[in-house]
Amino acid sequence: MGYNLFLDDFRIPQDAYRVNHDPRYNLLTWTMVKSYDEFVKVVETLGLPDLVAFDHDLADEHYEKYQGPISEKQYSEMQEKTGYHAARFLINWCIDRDLDIPEYLIHTQNHGGGLNIKSVMESGKKILKLTREAKERGETLPTLPDYTKEQ
Known about the structure:
The protein contains 7 helices and 4 strands, in the order E-H-H-E-H-E-H-H-H-E-H. It is an alpha/beta fold. It has a 4-stranded parallel β-sheet with strand order 2-1-3-4, covered by helices on one side.
């Protein structure tokens, strides 16, 4: 049984439709989570979603301090994890299990954060492809560094 995973701290899918106008927000049934921890728990419990909808800012600190381009250093200093952290978790989870990266939507109003989510998702697809090709040749490649865990 497939499912669609919607990550946002206060919006519902119909509100997200107003951000990027993708009709799937209104047409599909969603499993909704409000935090990184809930996101991880659902993926680990239900497995890989068919479609993921990402918000970036999931806590007050993200709205107050981190609008625009965000560096890896800034991500590592955050008290609460963002949609970017959830995307990194999902990429590593897929690569570790040799699963295709699911389709995704981004509905954040934080343009820089949205670009970071898109970048990690697209990079993850490339890394998975390279990892599979290396495996066919009997080689291994490292996964993305996992900035979602305590250093």
